[in-house]
Each structure stands twice: as C-alpha cells, then as structure tokens.
Amino acid sequence: MSMHIIGDTAVLTGRSLKHVTRSMDTIITTAIVPIAMMLLFVYVFGGAISHGASSGTYVGYLLPGILLMTIASGISYTAFRLFTDMTTGIFGRFQSMPIARSGVLWSHVLTSLVANIISVAVVFAVAFIMGFRTGAGVWAWLAVAGILILFTLALTWVAVIPGLTAKSISGASAFSYPLIFLPFISSAFVPTSTMPAPVRWFADNQPVTPIVNTVRDLFAQQPGNSDIWIALAWMVGILVVAFAFAMVIYRRKIT
C-alpha cells in the first residue's frame, strides 16, 4: 500500500512539475520581489541601517529574512495551482481513478518544495554576487537547508487550506501577503532591541524571529542557543496543525 501511494504521488508530482517548468515565470516572479527588497535595503537604506558596515556584511544580516520572504511568496502559487485543479474538475477525474487520494495533495506540496528550492537558489546566487560570504561548514549548510525545507513544508500545508476552500483565484493566493510582510516585524532587517516596546514584544514572540536568528547564527558559526528549539517548535507546530486541517477539509471535499 505504501509503495502504491509513493508511486501515485511521484506520477502526480511529475504532472505538476511539468506545469511549473512550462511557466518558469512563476519561479522568477517569486524571486524578483525578495531580490528587489535585498537590493533596496543594501544599496539604498543599508548605509543608515548598518551604520557603515560593508554591503557584504549587511547582506549576510538580511539574507535569512529574504529567504523566508522568498518561500512565503512562492507558496501562494501552491494555493493557486490547487484552486485551479479544484475548479477545473481535475480532482473529480482523479477520484474516479484507482489512485491514492492523499497523493493529489502531496504532489502539490512536493512541487512547491522543488519550486521554492529553485527560487531560494536564485536568491542565494544574487546574495553571493552582492558580497555575501560565510565560513559555515557542511553541517551548518545542511542545517540551514533543513530549516528552509521544514519552513517550506509548514507554509505549503498552510497554503493547501485556502487552495481547497477559496471562492476565487485572488482569495486563494491573498493569504500569503501577511506572511510575506511578517519578516518586517522581526529581527530580519534590524535588531528587535531598536523597536518600541509593543512592537518588540510582537517581533520577539512570532515565528520569523527565532528562525531568522537561527539561520544567521549558523552562517556566522555562532554557538547554538534556544532560538533553534523555538524555531523548530514553531515550524513543527504549524506543520502539524496545517496538515491536520488540510486533510480534514480535503476529505470533506472529495466525499
């Protein structure tokens, strides 16, 4: 049974990936806004914000938050593709076939993961061109990759919910806008210590800040602290809750 699910998911993922590769503009669009933000903050605001630090240093400070923005932007397309499948009757066709029903959702989730990996790689390339450097070793890079993958999976399952329930295309993707701007009220661009007390409280107690701090510490080869456990708790918690809600909604939709 498990091999049957894996095989069906692989076939459906291949179908979904073909749609992505035929419209690479979606991946490019996903990366454009975060890259523009990175260019803006480094070359326009960077001198004032970083108090004279080199552009490469400030790119390193910004990069973790920019990566999260890239992923948050990318998962909106997951909701869009899922909504399109729901409204065009493809789900109904799948139900009439002898395939694993969960494979339909997993194919969209895995497609999101692949597309976001490509977008994140593009952002990394631009950051290196702008002067980003790190002495992080293989294990630190693997840890960063694991965090970004877990973050992508958590947000993608969040995206599945509006993809299944939205009444319009704009409604399916609009949920991602608050997620894209959440890094602005975090430690992504400036230390939270510079913020007014109420804003600082929110910034310190929302998921982006510990994730950003953890990735930044890994790149800087800093000793680990409690941020990594807080970040993992946030991401796993969001993933579990979103997955549970998505599966309940999906079962109601296909029965």
Automatic annotation (TrEMBL):
Protein family per UniProt: Belongs to the ABC-2 integral membrane protein family.
Q: Cite the entry's keywords alphabetically.
A: Antibiotic resistance, Cell membrane, Membrane, Transmembrane, Transmembrane helix, Transport
Subcellular location(s): the record lists: Cell membrane; Membrane
Protein's name in the database: Transport permease protein
The transmembrane segments are 27-49, 61-83, 104-132, 138-160, 172-190, 228-250
State which gene encodes it: lieB_2
The record places domain ABC transmembrane type-2 at 25-253
InterPro entries tied to this protein = ABC2_TM, ABC2_TM_bact-type, ABC_2_transport, Nod_factor_ABC_transporter
Task: Give the way it sits in the membrane.
Answer: Multi-pass membrane protein
